[in-house]
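Researcher: I'd like a structural prediction for the single chain below. Treat it as a standalone chain; there are no partners to consider.
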Amino acid sequence: MSQDAETNEELLQTLQTGVASKEGQESGYQGQLSDAKARAASAATEQEQAKVKIAHLEKRIKEEEPRAKKAKEQNADLLKDLEVLKAQSQKLEAQLSKLGFEPGQEEAMYKQETTLQQSIRKLRQEADALKRKVANIDFNYADPTPNFDRSKVKGLVAQLFTLDKEHTAAGTALEICAGGRLYNVVVDNEVTGTQLLQGGKLRKRVTIIPLNKIAAFKASAQTIATAQKLAPGRVDLALSLVGYDDQVSAAMEYVFGNTLVCHDAETAKRVTFDQNVRMRSITLEGDSY
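Model: Treating it as a single chain, here is the predicted structure.
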């Protein structure tokens, strides 16, 4: 009982004075009360700060709510559009499948296009090379007089004859036989030739062959027959190997009428140096005797 009384007395003293009477209780209840008040004040401050944050967030919610609603509506429209596009894509894929389209086919076509373009470039280069090679037969002129009759100008010798397939082996020999005359211009008469030279605006110098003035020479049938007897089937008159129109026959005789085309050098020597022939001969390889 005495201990309980002592405890009660101590509690009463502490409550009245705020000071503990025993060691270890120096803070007393007054100190504890002060601490409690301080914590309460701090909690109140935090509560006010929280209220401010809540008010701010509520304000933002009110501001953002219409935007969120609008975004939701837009998103719904986008999703709807996406579904439409998916359906269209599936429809197109089905159509492509019916047309025989295969994945990777487009890439293969691009590769093929590249290959074709390379081939085209190569062909153009070859065509340009051929153009340069045959530049000498590119003959153009302007009408030297009003209402000029272009039929009077027959063209270059090289453009006026043909070579049958069976005689293509003689091409080199015929080219050497004709020489520079291949690029002579054949006209009907000397008047046309003069008009062409004076008013035709020719890009380069040319030699004119007037059909009415040309001094053509054609080997006799007897001489040709003699040559062919010396080498049967191995010699021909150059003129007999080409085809041409009768109206330019004089020009063709002038160019090809006095030369033999032989299969080989032995034949060429035999006929050329024969006393009864004595004609110029050219082999298929292009050797001249």
